[in-house]
Specification:
The structure holds two protein chains of two kinds. Chain A is an all-beta fold. Chain A has no helices and eleven strands.
Amino acid sequence: GAVVSQHPSRVICKSGTSVKIECRSLDFQATTMFWYRQFPKQSLMLMATSNEGSKATYEQGVEKDKFLINHASLTLSTLTVTSAHPEDSSFYICSARRGGGAETQYFGPGTRLLVL
Amino acid sequence: DAKTTQPPSMDCAEGRAANLPCNHSTISGNEYVYWYRQIHSQGPQYIIHGLKNNETNEMASLIITEDRKSSTLILPHATLRDTAVYYCIVRVGTSGNTPLVFGKGTRLSVIA
């Protein structure tokens, strides 16, 4: 299957700092990427849809000024958590949509963020 | 909101077939059924998808009822490494930017 990578795999930061998470599609071009968040023992919650060359579309309740998304190329999307707080600690997962046919989404391995 | 209903948990003996059911009674004619699984602390892994015909690949088989209101994912010979949360998702196939919406899934435990 298609490969999607994320970097870093885990990060610990102090409250008030910003953290950038990268999502790359390694063997295909992705015009659309998605960002999800998952709290312990819960399912994945969609945060935003990232489109190459345009502004991201955020889900209701997700602050666009806090979670900055940039999709500058067909293989890279970044999520920046600005002024992180302990309640932002979570597992962040990206996925990339591979075009053609039923347009399967492939997921990255996730980034675990811990804000102290 | 997720459009599917799955049992919260299931057990399966190692080496036996695991049959995971999913109800999607409000599925539309242009919506596909997708199955993903998530092993602890990893990103979801694509398993299989289908529209109305049964499908099989190296990982699993997908059986969709004729009325398309339910489906079953079959892992023919479950191993301990198949222990995971399995998600059944319906979504329009050629939908452009429509993302996958995850429900609570079924936690499958494969027991030695």
